[in-house]
Each structure stands twice: as structure tokens, then as C-alpha cells.
Amino acid sequence: MFRPDLTSPLNRIQPVDAYNADDEQGRREKRKAQFEGREWSLEDDDFAIQPQAPERAKKNEWDSTLFEEAKHSLLQLTTLEERAAQLLLLQVDAFYDAASQKKCERWILQFQLGGVLFHQGFYERQAYLISRFQEVAKTPLLIANDLLHAISFCPPFDLSSFDEKAWVELGEKVMKNNQSIGVQLQLDHERGSSSPQINADQKHAFCRGIRRNKGILGRVSGKSKPFGLCVGYHSLSCYAATAGISETELLQAYRGHHDLFIIDSECGSLIDWIAGWIRSGKICEKEFNQRLLKLLMLKSFSSRKSMQKKNVILNTN
Fold this sequence. Notes:
With about 325 residues, the protein is an alpha/beta fold. The protein has eleven helices and ten strands.
């Protein structure tokens, strides 16, 4: 007796499916692929066409690009003094003071400082100064805002009346203002205030708002914390190296894993100290260059047009 070969698709009778079983099968296969961890590009017919590249591979490629840019920047810093200056943040005010602006530009050019920290001033003036300082710098500057200075750019209000939700919304507004003028780093608490206006719970809510608006949240800690993309920092720890600081205190701060040092006066002696530690072997040059590479990677990360809305909250001491 003749028996048809039912295993062959050519000999099988295809049923008429009023409910479009082919479409349903395609949807099941697509859901299975998504369940197994693949992401799909879809067109109008809602069928899977081509799987996208794995996210991990994209990140690795991004990390490699950042590293090469940072390595190139490091090679442009030909002396130990220029490299040491990259750890310094110059505190400035955004007032209409031509003499102060010229002094800051001279220090940025002379010492090749790593960045500037705006302490007070006007929004429009700060936007201009950021653009001007970036023009005169040999390597891109890290731009930071003090906490209360950043809050001052928002409409006036009574902070004491804020609940948790209001603090979160304030963080989002501050982050939006920062992004609009090129501020990359946001200090996370009041620096040098003997009677803080913001308590721990309020600061935590404020930081949540920073994070919601695509900021990178830092933690209150004496050490740096790693974050994604292998750039090397989840938070940056700053130390106030203001006038009168001793070499011993500065060395202890460096060994205490502080990443940046805030200065408010002539900084030649601080740069000479750091360069001298490397030459004398008090600090390891290889470890110092690794720290510096991470900072330079962070600058490249922050300066990318596609990443302009990323920010970092700094830990201060």
C-alpha cells in the first residue's frame, strides 16, 4: 500500500488558516528569541529582521575609544608638573570682573590646571566663562558647581519648606541647568559651611533628582567608587587645598584616595610638591598615571556630544 512521506514539507498538505498561523508562529519565535536575551530590530510588519549587536560589545568599544583619547591627552602632558596640575580645581566666581577673569586665564595657561569650580555668581556670566576657559586650556577642563551655587540658579524658594518630592524635583532642575551651560560635575553637599542648610535626608533626595535626570550619582565616601563604562569613577573625592595647607597634609590627602584638590590661590608650590613626590618615589608614578588616565577618560566621556547630559556628583571633604 502506498504511504505518503509526511516528513517532507513538499508532500505535506498545507491547511488553510483563517487566523494567519504563520504570523502567530513568527511572533512566538520572536518572543522566544527575546526571552533568550537577544534584542531585535523591527520594521512595520512587526517581524524580527536582524539582531542588534550585544550591549556588552558596544560598551567595550566605547571604553576602548575613551582610553585611546585619554592616552593621547596624557602624552600631550610632557612634564610631571603639567600632569600634577591636572589634579587641581581652581575655585572661581562668575562675576563681571575682568581682572579676575584674566588672572584665571593666566593660571590655566601657565599651570595647565585640571578644571574649575564655580562658587558663586551669575548664570549668563558663568556660561561665557566656561566657554572662554575651555578655549585657552591645553586639555579639556572639568567644570564643577558648588551645591548652593547651583541651587541659586533655580527660582527663589524656602528650602526649609521642601518635602522629599520637592528635593527630588530640585535635583532634576539643577541637573538640567548644569547641562545647558557645560557643567560636568556637581558637588553633593555644602562645602565649608559650619551650619548646613541641607540635612542628610534632603541631600539624598536631591541626589536622586540628579540621577533621574541622567546624572551619575556619587556617594559620601572618602574613596572613589567605580561606575559603568570602565571609566573608573562612580564618585570623585575632593579635598580643599586652600591657602595655608602644608605639604604633609596634602600628601596625606593624596594617599587617602582623594582625586581632586580645590585651590583658591596661587598653586605653583602644590604642583611642585606633587611632582617632587613622584621624582623622589614617595608616590608611585605608575599609580599616579593610572589615576590621571581615569580623570582624562572622564573628561573625554563628559565632552562627547552624545553624552552631554551625563553628570557626576562629587564627594567633598
